[in-house]
Amino acid sequence: MRRFSLRLALSHLLLPALLLAGGASAQVPENQNGAQASQAPVEQIPLKPPTKPKTVDELLAELKRERNPQAARQIANTAMATWSESSSPTVDLLMQWSAKAAAEKRNAAALDFIDRAIILKPDFVGAWNQRATLHFTMGNYKKSVSDIEKVLELEPRHFGAIAGLAGILTERGSKDAALKAWERYLDIFPADREAQEIVAKLSEELAGQRT
Question: What are the sequence ranges of the domains in the chain?
Fold first, then answer.
């Protein structure tokens, strides 16, 4: 069960991948002779104004209400992506470099990049969470917990950081504290069935120890 808890905790600590989409250009159809076909004038349909991105408060309110696991996961991913936006091109670049270095197992370089990002923007939740994740994957749980505590100081509703903390507490054998952390997590993200299973198993284990 500990391995299961750590796998789930890590999956929620990890930031969503950045997706780059290329624009597709429309082509004018050609006739059989290879010349561009003439087109009849069409009625101009007014474009809808761009949809305003939802705030973290709005996303977390939706996450708390949503009971469909797949729909909830999409909301959760969007919230995590929102937390990873720094509004600083330099900081975002450092975070990308750090993530790339970590993926290539160049942990020293990854830490250096993310440390610079934190120095430039010390109140940026995403940078602290990314460093907590890096320490977590390296097995530096004490340092990871320290960074998680900073994340939760800046954003107490950061369910990814709470899951990371719960996983580490479970690994350390602190079942009571782990159960409280997972319950806190489920209060924010109630549709997570894996977390529900962990809470049920931990509750059963602790009840058996008290009898």
Answer: 2-12+55-210
To the nearest 10°, the Cα dihedral for 206, 209, 210, 211?
Answer: 120
Q: What is the pLDDT of residues 53-69, one digit of tens each?
A: 899 999 999 999 999 99
Q: What is the pLDDT of residues 116-161, one digit of tens each?
A: 999 999 999 999 999 999 999 999 999 999 999 999 999 999 999 9
pLDDT of residue 209: 81
For residue 203, the Cα-to-chain-centroid distance in whole angstroms is: 27
d(CA 65, CA 159): 15
- Chain center to CA of 107: 20
pTM, 2 dp = 0.78
Residue 193 phi, psi (nearest 5): -70, -35
What's the Rg (C-alpha) of the chain? 22
Contact yes or no for 159/127 (Cβ under 8 A): no
- In CATH terms, the superfamily for domain 2-12+55-210 is Tetratricopeptide repeat domain (1.25.40.10)
What is the chain's length? 211
User: Can you read off the two tokens belonging to residue 99?
Assistant: 């993530």
What end-to-end distance do the CA atoms of the chain give, in Å?
A: 21
Q: Please answer whether residues 12 and 160 qualify as being in contact, where contact means their C-beta atoms are separated by less than 8 angstroms.
A: yes
Check if the beta carbon of residue 188 is closer than 8 Å to that of residue 66: no
Return the DSSP state at 104: T
- In 3-state terms, what secondary structure has residue 36? strand
